[in-house]
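Worked example 2:
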Amino acid sequence: MNTSEIIQGICVDTANTTVLIEGQTYFLFPNGPNYFYVSVFPDSKAHKGCYQSRCFQIIKKIKEEWPAEPKGPCLVSDYDKEKVYKAQLVWRKPGYRGTELKEYFIRLKVEYPEQKLKINLVDSCYFYDQYENGQFEGFRGCFPLHWFGEMEEVLDTYNQEFSEKEQIVVTERVINGYEQLSLFD
């Protein structure tokens, strides 16, 4: 478990700046013993600046626990890069809180396509909200493959239906050993 501390404090002294508002509650991130990075969001990278700790009255300290990253292989060759998979996102870094832990459609990212290997070495994947009629929709990003679980292949019914219809048309055209040329179908 990763544990990080989030501190909230009320501004009691604006330190002669127009950035801080007296009486406003801020998220505070320590920067040494006497300074805080100050933010209106619980993200240290979205801070408004660095101010002396005397400008704030600490009102709340929250210990946030984050589960440990699942262990997984760095590179896998068990999957086919040409296929589409459905998988459950089971973990993400704390910075990706906005990405829901739910089922997504994934397309594998092959790491070494320039090498003529018989296997595809994969360590990450692109993931999407939807996959219909051979098209991905709702691109969400690229995450390591071991952050996903319960991976299963998605059968592309659109391509299967198209292949069946195509086969019927071909058999109708082949009559008595010759095939009729058709330019417009």
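The chain has a mean pLDDT of 79. The radius of gyration is 27 Å.
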